[in-house]
Design a protein that fits this description.
heterodimer, A: 453 residues, alpha/beta, five-stranded mixed β-sheet, 27% strand, B: 154 residues, alpha+beta, Chemotaxis protein chec, eight-stranded antiparallel β-sheet, 3 helices, 10 strands, 36% helix, 37% strand
Chain lengths: 453, 154
């Protein structure tokens, strides 16, 4: 901080005493002082609108614990925050009819009421005498403190109101962080790590130092429209190690589309363009969560020729026999998706676990029965565009995200989050992960990884 | 867009255009477009409401519109007058009506609005939340884009 440097320089000069006197005489900063459980705190007076005594706040359900409710301040409804709860300072038991000491602060255009123990007085100081907070301050998370001031032998902790109440207009990455300032200080510390993860999307530059596969990444993008992102970075890295073992030194680069295909071959999830083996169907059956809803809606982007959608339909039918199930199966390949409806099941598959869901056509071919076909809606649709889907219980989207541009992946993931119901699950490709996204939580059931919001 | 909806529109657009314009009609590759789309100059719009809702838009340049109107009326039309407008409106009606009849046979029931005609330069039509299927038709008179945006009612 500039002030301190200036200050230390000043202190080193021989005019030490004179300066000290100056500091007392020039008052350019006023603050309101108050106490929280016996300790002294202060707020910049310019942030304070008024001081009041109030009580009987109107409780608002489902808010954080430190929000006491709302209060009608001469016609303005303002939220009331208890700083003691916010900072995890013990609160004395409140009597019902007690009036609380309230400091009304304004942050931007919004006003907040802050409940404190005692309001002391207005103290005038010189701005340069504010000292930066020391990292050892335990009580309150350091980022909420703008400094420490000494006055009349008392130390006041100067709170940064803007930070506590958050600046909503902060730029994107910041805004998520700032919003967290609404939660108790301790929670913010706990949440800090995942937030940081999100802030480091510097993939290529970072990795290039230890493992240079950036040339492959570019080639994959051009040849196979496969895009490196946080979703598949781990896979690419491990695949590249194996690739180095498999190939001669001269052949590391892709000489043709076939090479790129070979590289990507292990990426494909099990049976993603084929009929499922019973073992996989069984795993999925076990992994699907309990759902007693009458109507279950499923979103299956990238359905291709429909093998996956039909197989999924069979598993769901078995898992939720009572529910009405709708599967929206979509693809951007018009030919594939148009022919999906007419999918024929070869004889070799017709006698395994698919058997109960099949029927025979006049010409003796095996097709899925009406119960299954009725569940499916095949659509020609590009998931990066707007869609008219209702909220869904299950999103089954294997090996699709990685083939979209990085920006589009973000858009689609946002869309997923938007459309997925609170108890819904998202299933993505076996070699794709969402662990770098704070909004998604993974769980593994029956060796199938699912994500919830 | 459900795949069932696509074919009726593609088929009828083709067959009607061949019937009324004669000559060779070619179909270009279908594609999807998100929300807003610029209009080439003349656009006829037919609304759909019922089990399925949305709209069908026939988009062409002024030159194409005049060529088509001339051809369909068997006389040279140079200005986009009442007759030309009525002709383009009728063409939109013909195609949509037949496509809808086909969809009716498949079990989708809905009504049509009378066609509305838009002309002007540098226009853009946008509708939220619906993705449009574009069926480009190349005729001897010029290119017509049939722009179908329909979805099930929620």
């Amino acid at each position: 901080m500039e002030n301190t440097i200036e200050q230390t320089l000043m202190q080193e000069t021989s005019y030490d005493i004179e300066d000290q006197n100056d500091k007392i005489s020039i008052i350019d900063f006023k603050m309101i002082t108050f106490s929280l459980s016996g300790k002294d705190y202060a707020i910049d007076i310019m942030k304070v609108k008024e001081i009041a005594k109030a009580g009987h706040f109107t409780y608002v359900p489902n808010t954080s614990s430190f929000v006491l409710g709302v209060h009608n301040l001469r016609g303005d409804i303002i939220p009331i925050i208890d700083l003691r709860i916010f900072f995890n300072i013990p609160v004395e038991e409140r009597k019902d009819d007690d009036l609380e000491n309230l400091i009304v602060v304004s942050v931007g255009e919004q006003s907040f009421g802050v409940v404190v123990d005692h309001i002391d007085k207005v103290v005038g100081i010189q701005q340069s005498s504010i000292q930066p907070p020391h990292p050892l301050f335990g009580d309150i998370n350091i980022k909420y403190i703008s400094g420490v001031v000494e006055n009349a032998n008392r130390l006041f902790i100067l709170l940064d109101i803007d930070r506590i109440f958050g600046l909503r207009q902060a730029p994107t990455v910041e805004s998520a962080k700032e919003q967290e300032h609404f939660s108790p200080a301790q929670k913010t510390i706990a949440d800090h790590k995942p937030t940081q993860k999100q802030e480091t999307p510097v993939l290529l530059e970072h990795k290039a130092s230890d493992l240079d596969y950036s040339f492959l990444v570019e080639d994959l993008k051009v040849r196979k429209s496969f895009n490196l992102s946080l979703i598949n970075e781990a896979w690419i890295k491990s695949r590249y190690m194996k690739w180095l073992d498999e190939r001669d030194a001269e052949n590391i680069q892709f000489n043709s589309d076939e090479d790129a295909e070979l590289f990507l071959k292990p990426f494909a999830s099990k049976f993603s363009h084929d009929f499922w083996e019973e073992s996989y169907a069984e795993q999925l059956y076990k992994a699907l969560p309990e759902n007693t809803a009458k109507q279950i809606t499923v979103w299956n982007p990238g359905c291709g020729k429909g093998h996956e959608s039909f197989s999924l339909a069979c598993v769901l039918k078995k898992r939720y026999p009572e529910a009405r199930i709708r599967i929206y199966a979509q693809d951007t390949d018009l030919l594939a998706v148009s022919s999906a409806q007419m999918l024929r099941v070869p004889q070799s598959q017709a006698e395994n676990w698919y058997a109960p869901f099949l029927t025979k056509t006049v010409s003796g071919e095996h097709v899925f029965n009406a119960d299954i076909t009725e569940m499916l809606f095949f659509e020609y649709h590009d998931i990066t565009h707007n869609n008219a889907l209702p909220n869904v219980d299950i999103i089954f989207c294997r090996d699709v995200l990685s083939y979209l541009d990085k920006e589009k992946q973000e858009i689609v993931l946002e869309d997923f989050e938007d459309k997925l119901k609170g108890n819904g699950v998202l299933i993505i490709g076996e070699n794709e992960v969402l662990t770098n996204y704070v909004d998604w939580h993974s769980k593994e059931v029956a060796s199938i990884t699912m994500y919830t919001k | 867009m459900r795949v069932e909806y696509i074919n009726p529109f593609v088929e009828t657009a083709y067959s009607i255009l061949v019937e009324v314009l004669g000559g060779e009609v070619k179909r270009d590759n279908l594609y999807l477009k998100s929300t807003s789309m610029p209009v080439m100059g003349v656009a006829a719009l037919v609304g759909l409401a019922g089990d399925v809702e949305g709209r069908v838009l026939f988009d062409m340049s002024m030159e194409t519109a005049l060529n088509i109107a001339s051809k369909m009326n068997d006389e040279k039309i140079d200005t986009f007058d009442e007759l030309a407008k009525a002709t383009i409106t009728e063409l939109a009606n013909l195609i949509t009506a037949q496509a809808v009849t086909k969809l009716h046979e498949l079990g989708f029931k809905f009504d049509l609005t009378p066609p509305a005609l838009f002309t002007g330069e540098r226009m853009e039509i946008s509708d939220q939340n619906v993705e449009a299927l574009i069926v480009p038709m190349i005729t001897e008179q010029g290119k017509i884009e049939v722009n179908v945006a329909i979805r099930e009612r929620m």
